[in-house]
Design brief:
Helix content is 5%, strand content 45%. It is mainly beta and 374 residues long. The protein has two domains: 2-280, Neuraminidase (6 Propeller), CATH 2.120.10; 290-372, Immunoglobulin-like (Sandwich), CATH 2.60.40.3080.
Amino acid sequence: MKKALFLTSVLMAGYFAAAQDITAATGLTKGKIEFNDFRIINSNDLNSSSVLLTKNDKINLESKETEIGKICSCGKYIAAITESLKGDLFYIPMSGQKVMKIDVVSKTGTEYTFQGLDINSGNQANYYARMTTAPDGYMYALNNAGTEFLKISDNGTIQNLGPISQFVEKAKTFDQETAVYGGDMIADAFGNLYVFSASQHVFKINPNKLSAEYLGQIKGLPGNYTVNGAAVERDGSILLGTSSQNGFYTLNIDTMEAGFKADYSLSVYDLSSPYFLRQNEMDQISKDYGYSLYPTIVKNSELNIVSKSDESAVLNVSIWNLSEKRVYSNTVTVKSAGDYQLKLNGSLLPGIYVLKAVNQNGKEVINTKFTLLR
């Protein structure tokens, strides 16, 4: 069914060219929680930005759950946004159990619903303010109390994985459990998630084990600084944004020290970027093995294994789906440094896969996720 969502744009023709920058949900007035627009912030000049969609704009929205012609408004409160690996904008409004998917180029979108705690009850523990995209291609969102953890595919399939128990238990040790509310979430290249609460507390989450580790409280931020947005920058640092009377700070996750970066006049409710924390470490591991895989976004069923060594090798290649089932196998003979093509010949359905390669000595030299598009 089609309906109207009042949300469109001063749309940037170069949106995908600018996708290396930071996407933000912002408001016009510092210290006030009232969503105004989604915008791209230039990572080289944080005070330079371009509006993508505003709360007053209109797009064509498809939903299987609502009546034809019903007007859908994003509301005043949006604090959980991310982009899929395909470039679609996803967000969770603070009303109703729904996830919104928006293509900012075609001005179309889809509304997906999920089963969970009543967000409309006014209980802030149930609100979603943290959302990110992980290297496995899924998007993840955690409600304020940590009692609901969503796993979202780019086609709108939503799994409610339940509570992150260690997060919930740690929240009870604070003077106020609201100390873990709000904030944002990022991912690292190894698949871990990092939750930042508005009160500057940081947790590391393993989404596969549904476990959490408390990393501590951020040092170096003003006392009244609320962490409303977090995103990994191009250089691997973490950018923090706020709705309070402050600007952008950067965070070193190893020392938990934050430093001032730039003033910003708008209220920031959430941030998103296409980068992963610790990507350099992952790249170094691949470099040490001497082999890599490209592209990781595959459109024509052709992959390339890149050898950085002049040594010959026989690689046993296998491809696995996210259910850990092997769906493809082949052998690649490497004779010297260069690219070696692997043709899938349309044997796999679109989706997220893991390619593994083991050399003749039994050593795994590639273990990389890739996305196969239609």
